[in-house]
Amino acid sequence: MKILFVLDYVDFPTAVNPQLAARLAGQLVNMGHSASLLRLWDGCTPPPPPPEGVQVQDLAFADEHQMNLDLENGRKIGSPAPVRVARLLTHPAAAAAAFRQLILHKNRRQTACTKAIERLCRGAHYDAVVAVCAPYHTAWALADADIPAKKATWQMDPYSANREYTPYGGAQKELAMYARIDRAFITKLMEPDYESGPLAPAKPKTQVLEFPCLCPLPPAPAQSHTGLQCVFAGSLHPEIRQPYALLSLFEKLADVPGLQLVMLGGGWENFPADAPDACRKALGQRLTIAGQVPPQQARSAMAGADVLINLGNTVTNQLPSKIFEYFSSGKPILNLCANPSDPALRYFARYPLALTLFANDASAPEKLRCWLAETAGKRLDFAQSAALFAENTPAAVAKELLRGLQ
Q: What are the tens digits of pLDDT across the range 209-222?
């Protein structure tokens, strides 16, 4: 089968969704299929190298990147709106991009992507085109494309059912998109959103596709730390994933020799500007806030960690794909849960080296202290992890994708 994946790195150059799609494209090539990538990027941070054998076409959107910088990605916290607009007006191309996106609701990224899909399909005669979401610009672009290939979306995050914000057009816009595609691949947690309510008419076109995350981590780097290093790798968000319970927990473990907490990933910009410094003040040299780092650096840090940490979501229709990379490591994992209905709980229940604690549990510090001592040096090999989560191996996900595109 000959498949084109459409990936969007413009708003978040290190976002995980396009990385997972590129990984799956590489798996399809290894299975004897043909896979290509159409990558939308910000003109500033080049996307990661593609897997061997995967063809690439790139479209840069420096105007929209500058728009995002000037408007601070629409964050609630930050400069006052007049300051952002004044900054935007000093960049004419970015101002024009903002007008197209915020007023006309049809940005250049979408129209240029549609034309690129049509051009590539005329030249390569793809059997299917898969738009990877979120963001959803690729989905709208694919829906508009006049092509003979099958059209599919791979929705790793919800659109109208998203509980972090209210998206433009809501369910009506999403349903209009479903009317013009053949298949919508969704996560298992999104299934209830299509059982009833406004998205129910689209249910016949949906099919669950798991995250293709079960891959061996790179070799651990030469020992670069002493003591016990605990690593959180992921993004933070005020609505669904906050750091405060984790930091409070580690404050209570000051007596554990050599205990270190390393936090990798973005999202701090969505919290008060003094939040990182306040956290550093509380934990001192035991805390490292690295912020956003390149994907390979994050994977290397996970490989070198002694313990990995998951911060549970407060919402129930989204799951951090990162947990399956954690499982791949075979390392002990602390799962700090914020919601007793967190769907991640059933996955951690399968994993023998996981400890789940609830943020409001007064006995959590003592439980963690004992668990750290009990699991010190313990590991699962990759084959054990892959057997526990076989549905998340790239080979299994690729087979399911191909079945859905038949």
A: 999 999 988 887 76
